[in-house]
Amino acid sequence: MSTQIRGSFHWMKSLNKSIILNKIRMDGPISRADIAKQTKLTPPTVSSIVKELIESKLVIESNQGESSGGRKPTMLMINASNFFVIGLDIGPKWLRAVIADLNGKSYDSAIHHIPASITEQLLIELTTDTIESIFSAHPESQEKVIGIGIGMHGVVDADAGIATYAPSLDLRNIPFKEVLEKKFNLIVKVENDARALSLGEAWFGKGSNSEHVITVNVGRGIGAGIVIDNKLFRGKHQIAGEIGHMTIDLSGPLCDCGNYGCLQTLAAGPALVKRAVKSMSMHPESSLHSFKEEDITGKVIYEEAVKGDAFCKEIFEETGVYLGTGLTNVIHTLNPERIVIGGGLANAGDLLLDPIKATITRKALTKEAKETEIVFSNLGKFGTALGAVSLLLVEMFAKAE
Ligand SMILES: [Zn+2]
């Protein structure tokens, strides 16, 4: 790996470079003169930085643009496919990895099962092995990787790059940043997985072009990543976005956190299944009775609902009302432009989306709040890994104030 590439992330991070890079990313092909006008940097500053960016192959000159007379200006574009970032999603059960270019186009991906009995040391080994195998499968990309991003479940100290507590694996204090930076000589960013997904949505997905976007992950639990002014909001003690523990029903079921009626005890995947199993005896006509109790999953209930089973449809309807109630509280607290829903329940489509939207329309305060856009994520099962890629990109491409 060349010294130039090793230092390149820090080199790119100078503020004026980032501002110019972001201008070219958002508005390219664009001329030097327009960059200067729109960023308020002086033309000589723009010229000298653009020269460096072209020498580093980050920016290329494209066809000449229109001119109102005189010489046609040369247009500039980001050379997105010439650089790569490796993104990892380390969840409770699976480690997913992608290698993607600066546009978020994935060139390859890998997935490994994480055994429940894994130790801190073994998880670090699994992570380094995964990265090494990506490098050996793509020797041509080795010189072009600018960094590694990790979206890790549980509590993460993003500044130190440490996974402080991963409850589902019962692991503590995994120093990913320190170990991987030493091993690969690349910059490493670590973030909580819901926040990484949220940033990925804001950068590449359904949230792009929205400055305030909230991504809600509805799976085994419920968590949200909050992006305000295109930046992640973590709160003073890193718990901003723990909307799964928002109280929805004071006399609801007991939650892992010790409170009653938290949103995730009513609307997460396991809660939906539990509710169906508990009340199916009151619906003897339901096709769920043809399944063994232990075989009833969210997917089964969804499939039976699609086939027309009224009881299964009702379970989704109720879940949508709970989620819509929680999201109305989020809208009233943060007033986002858009809410993106990801995670396992995002596969339920209109069965879930219709009651969510109807509930928000019923409950939200103003006409504009009622019309807050609610969409499902389209980044797919590697969405969090792509979000981990965006952890590096947000620092490379800074917005001019
Ligand atoms: Zn709770």
Automatic annotation (TrEMBL):
Presence of the UniProt keyword Transcription in the record: no
Keywords recorded for this protein, A-Z: Carbohydrate metabolism, Xylose metabolism
Family annotation (InterPro entries): ATPase_NBD, ROK, ROK_cs, WH-like_DNA-bd_sf, WH_DNA-bd_sf
Any Pfam family the entry gives: ROK
Domain of life: Bacteria
Family assignment from sequence similarity: Belongs to the ROK (NagC/XylR) family.
General function of this protein: Transcriptional repressor of xylose-utilizing enzymes.
Protein name: ROK family transcriptional regulator
Organism: Halobacillus salinarum
Lineage of origin: Bacteria, Bacillati, Bacillota, Bacilli, Bacillales
